[in-house]
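Dear support,

I submitted the protein below through the web form. The confirmation email said the job was done, but the results page showed an empty box. After a refresh the structure appeared. I'm attaching both so you can tell me whether what I see now is the final result or a partial one.
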Amino acid sequence: MSHDSMNDDMGDQGGPVRRQFFRRRKTCPFSGENALAIDYKDVRLLGRFVSERGKIIPSRISAVSMKKQRELTTAIKRARFLALMPYVTE
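What the results page shows now:
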């Protein structure tokens, strides 16, 4: 292996080159036209935003806006308190 072929994907400082890629911005499922309504009684909808371990999924992963994430968190906690959803799963 020649010295030139080893440095093909190396940057100026000797580290690997970062490749840019386009990521489509996710949109909030609770805002806009035909948006879903957040309701503590809708356990199937709330279950989509809870992990298998029972933790609430953060908004940076679920793409929920900040305002709707607070409403979602309140609805999940209310459903847990009323025993509609479990706090943890085994």
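Response: this is the final, complete result; the empty box was a page-load delay. The chain has four helices and no strands.
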